[in-house]
């Protein structure tokens, strides 16, 4: 039996059908549409794919490629979302349509960018002052932001930002100013990543079947 591995959800008519290295050895992604929505999928032999580094990278790379150029908005699914038949997948699209429509509206024309500030070993840093400086530069340029976990005692800030594509250049320039300010003294390392599919700003929970 062939199952459907789901990368994300798009507007109906905004789908895709192309050959590409995909999760689980698949070589094609395409769209299954229902209720004005489309799920971008590939065919996979298992309902429980192993999360290898290679497949996790393929999952993320496909989402970034689908978003490239800003012509398509996609609500990303986390790695491992698999349905064993099209009916089950279409039932989820139908039942979750209001939530998916809201999510598509929330992230349309936007990308996720990540910022980590890492304290150098032994450095003394005023965490509140650093966060205040970041807010002064970035708060007005982002549509939204979320705090991620401080999983190390050297992390001063770990935050994801939702940024309009039209503000991306200004946001990059602001990050450049922060890098110049923080790295000049040698106390902080700036880690700026992205763009990513907006995982941190999508709150749609569905169960695979």
Write up what this structure looks like:
Keywords: Gas vesicle. The chain has 209 residues and is an alpha+beta fold. It has 2 domains: 3-108, no CATH class; 110-196, Alpha-Beta Plaits. 31% of the residues lie in helices and 31% in strands. The chain contains 5 helices and 10 strands. The strands form 2 sheets. Strands 1, 2, 3, 4, 5 and 6 form a 6-stranded antiparallel beta sheet that branches. It has a 4-stranded antiparallel beta sheet with strand order 8-9-7-10. Helix 4 (127-138) runs antiparallel to helix 5 (168-184). It is elongated. The protein starts with a strand and ends in a 13-residue tail after the last strand. The mean pLDDT is 89.
Brief summary:
Belongs to the gas vesicle GvpF/GvpL family. The protein is of the alpha+beta class and 209 residues long. The protein has 5 helices and 10 strands; from the N terminus they run ββββαββααβαββαβ.
What topology emerges from the helices and strands here?
Elements: E1 3-11, E2 17-19, E3 28-34, E4 37-44, H1 53-67, E5 75-76, E6 82-83, H2 86-95, H3 97-107, E7 110-119, H4 127-138, E8 144-147, E9 155-164, H5 168-184, E10 188-196
Antiparallel strand pairs: 1-4, 1-5, 1-6, 2-3, 3-4, 7-9, 7-10, 8-9
């Amino acid at each position: 039996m062939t199952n459907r591995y789901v990368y994300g959800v798009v507007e109906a008519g905004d789908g895709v059908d192309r050959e590409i290295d995909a999760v689980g050895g698949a070589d094609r992604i395409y769209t299954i549409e229902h209720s004005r929505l489309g799920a971008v999928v590939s065919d996979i032999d298992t309902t429980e794919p192993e999360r290898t580094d290679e497949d996790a990278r393929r999952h993320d790379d496909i989402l970034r490629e689908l978003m490239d150029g800003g012509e398509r908005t996609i609500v990303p699914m986390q790695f491992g979302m698999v349905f064993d038949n099209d009916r089950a997948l279409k039932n989820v699209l139908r039942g979750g349509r209001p939530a998916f429509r809201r999510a598509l509206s929330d992230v349309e024309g936007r990308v996720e960018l990540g910022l980590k500030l890492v304290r150098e070993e032994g450095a003394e840093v005023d965490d509140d002052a650093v966060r205040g400086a970041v807010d002064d530069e970035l708060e007005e340029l982002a549509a939204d932001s979320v705090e991620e976990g401080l999983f190390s005692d050297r992390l001063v800030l770990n935050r994801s930002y939702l940024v309009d594509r039209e503000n991306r250049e200004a946001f990059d320039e602001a990050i450049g100013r922060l890098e110049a300010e923080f790295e000049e003294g040698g106390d902080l390392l700036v880690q700026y990543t992205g763009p990513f599919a907006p995982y941190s700003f999508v709150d749609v929970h569905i169960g695979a079947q």
